[in-house]
C-alpha cells in the first residue's frame, strides 16, 4: 500500500454491518452494478467499513463510522466515509458532535491508473494555488481489504456547481465567474517545455513526478531526471507537430495490429491534414505560444465545488471567494495553451452544463446580469484565455487534440471526427 495513512499502523477490529446513509438506495445502485459489473453497494459497504476500521481509523468503533454512497462518475465509484468523534468517553455516552470526513474513490475499470491521478493532484497543489483535495492514502494494486485500487481524499466543503449554480444569487454567480477565471489563469501560468500525462516516478532516485509523453520516444530522460521542466523554453515541438505525431502514432499502432485496415488510417491522415492547415493558416503558430500548459480537460460544473458559507472577498490573487475545490483531475495533461481555453457558457446562459462537447455557436448573454458574469469571467481568466477561447478554429483544434490524445474507442469518436472534418472542409474548401 502506498501514500500517506491517516493514523498509526492498523489493527482490524470486530465490526458490525456498516452504518449507511444509503440503505434505501440499493435499487438506485443497481445501475452501477449492472452497467459496470460491480459488487452491489449493499455488500460492498461492509468491505468499505472494514477498510475504514483497518486503514483509516483503527481506534474507532464500527458504530462511529458511516459509509455513504455518493453519485459516481464514468470512471470512479465514489464512497463517503465519516467518523463521528465523541466529545466524551464512550462509557458515559458522549455526544457525537465532531466529524472526520473523507472520500473513497474506487476505479470502475481495471486499466485505471490511480497513481497518475495522485501525480496530478501533487503537481497542482505544489505548482499552483488551485484548491484540490488532499490525498490521504492510495494503493494502485489489489492486495488490500477492498481487493481493488483506490484513492482516499479529504472531503472538501461545499457542493457541486452542477446542482448549486442555478440556485445561487447573481452576486454569488459573479463570485463563481471570478473564481473560475482565476483557476483558468492559474493553469495557463504553468509553462512546460514538454507535453504529456502526469505520472509518479517509479524510481526514488529522481524527482517524484514526471510527464509521460503522448508519443513514446527512444529519447528517454537520463536516470534521476524528469521531462517535467517548468518555465523553460522553447517547447520540444510546435503544437501542429505534436498533433501530427500523435495522430501518426495512432495510425502506426492501428496498422501494426490490423494491416489491412483502411477506414481509421484514412481518418487519421485527414485529421493530420487539419493540423497542418491550422499551422499554415496561422492558428497554430510557434512564437510566444511555443510552450505547453496545464489543462484539466473536464472542467465542468460537476467537478467544481463551491462553498457559499465562505465570506472572503478574494482580494488576494491566491484566494478564492466561493469555489472550494476543483475535482477529477484524472484527464489532466500538459498541452498547448488552446487546449486549456474551452469556454464556459453555463456561466452566462441557460446551458446543459454537463455536456462535454463545445457548441458550434456559443449562446450570447440575454440580460445585463448575464453579460456582467461573462465580462467578469473573461477579465479574470485573462487575455491568453480570450485569445484561444472563442474562435471556431481553436474550438476545432481542441476537438482535434482530444481525438489525438484519446484515440478511437467508440462510435462516438468516429462521429466526432466526421463532424470535425465536415466543418473544417466547409471553412476551408479544397
From TrEMBL:
All residue ranges annotated as the Aminoglycoside phosphotransferase domain in the record: 98-358
Protein name per UniProt: Aminoglycoside phosphotransferase domain-containing protein
Coiled coil: none
Domain of life of the organism encoding this protein: Eukaryota
Organism expressing this protein natively: Ophiostoma piceae (strain UAMH 11346)
Pfam families tied to this protein: APH (PF01636)
Biased composition (Low complexity): 1-17
Region Disordered, annotated ranges: 1-24
Amino acid at each position: 500500500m502506498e501514500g500517506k495513512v491517516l493514523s498509526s499502523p492498523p489493527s482490524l477490529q470486530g465490526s458490525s454491518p456498516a452504518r449507511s446513509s444509503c440503505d434505501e438506495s440499493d435499487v438506485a445502485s443497481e445501475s452501477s452494478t449492472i452497467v459496470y459489473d460491480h459488487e452491489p453497494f449493499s455488500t460492498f459497504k461492509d468491505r468499505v467499513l472494514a477498510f475504514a476500521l483497518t486503514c483509516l481509523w483503527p481506534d474507532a468503533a464500527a458504530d462511529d463510522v458511516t459509509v455513504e454512497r455518493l453519485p459516481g462518475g464514468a470512471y470512479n465509484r465514489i464512497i463517503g466515509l465519516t467518523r463521528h468523534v465523541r466529545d466524551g468517553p464512550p462509557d458515559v455516552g458522549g455526544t457525537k458532535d465532531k466529524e472526520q470526513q473523507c472520500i473513497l474513490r474506487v476505479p470502475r475499470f481495471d486499466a485505471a491508473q490511480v497513481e497518475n491521478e495522485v501525480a496530478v493532484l501533487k503537481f497542482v497543489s505544489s505548482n499552483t494555488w488551485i484548491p484540490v483535495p488532499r490525498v490521504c492514502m492510495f494503493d494502485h494494486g489489489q492486495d488490500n481489504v477492498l481487493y481493488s485500487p483506490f484513492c482516499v481524499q479529504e472531503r472538501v466543503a461545499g457542493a457541486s456547481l452542477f446542482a448549486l449554480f442555478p440556485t445561487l444569487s447573481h452576486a454569488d454567480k459573479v463570485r463563481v465567474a471570478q473564481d473560475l477565471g482565476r483557476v483558468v489563469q492559474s493553469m495557463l501560468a504553468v509553462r512546460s517545455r514538454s507535453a504529456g500525462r502526469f505520472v509518479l516516478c517509479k524510481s526514488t532516485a529522481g524527482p517524484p513526478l514526471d510527464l509521460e509523453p503522448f508519443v513514446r520516444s527512444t529519447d528517454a530522460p537520463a536516470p534521476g531526471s524528469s521531462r517535467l521542466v517548468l518555465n523553460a523554453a522553447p517547447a520540444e515541438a510546435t503544437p501542429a507537430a505534436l498533433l501530427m505525431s500523435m495522430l501518426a502514432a495512432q495510425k502506426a499502432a492501428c496498422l501494426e495490429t490490423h494491416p489491412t485496415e483502411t477506414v481509421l488510417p484514412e481518418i487519421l491522415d485527414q485529421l493530420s491534414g487539419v493540423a497542418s492547415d491550422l499551422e499554415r493558416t496561422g492558428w497554430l503558430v510557434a512564437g510566444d505560444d511555443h510552450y505547453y500548459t496545464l489543462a484539466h480537460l473536464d472542467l465542468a460544473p460537476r467537478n467544481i465545488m463551491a462553498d457559499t458559507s465562505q465570506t472572503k472577498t478574494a482580494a488576494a490573487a491566491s484566494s478564492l471567494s466561493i469555489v472550494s475545490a476543483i475535482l477529477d483531475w484524472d484527464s489532466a495533461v500538459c498541452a498547448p495553451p488552446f487546449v486549456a481555453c474551452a469556454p464556459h457558457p453555463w456561466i452566462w446562459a441557460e446551458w446543459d452544463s454537463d455536456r462535454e462537447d463545445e457548441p458550434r455557436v456559443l449562446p450570447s448573454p440575454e440580460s445585463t446580469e448575464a453579460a456582467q458574469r461573462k465580462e467578469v469571467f473573461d477579465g479574470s481568466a485573462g487575455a491568453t484565455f480570450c485569445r484561444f477561447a472563442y474562435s471556431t478554429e481553436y474550438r476545432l483544434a481542441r476537438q482535434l487534440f482530444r481525438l489525438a490524445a484519446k484515440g478511437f474507442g467508440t462510435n462516438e469518436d468516429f462521429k466526432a471526427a466526421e463532424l470535425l472534418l465536415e466543418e473544417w472542409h466547409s471553412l476551408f474548401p479544397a
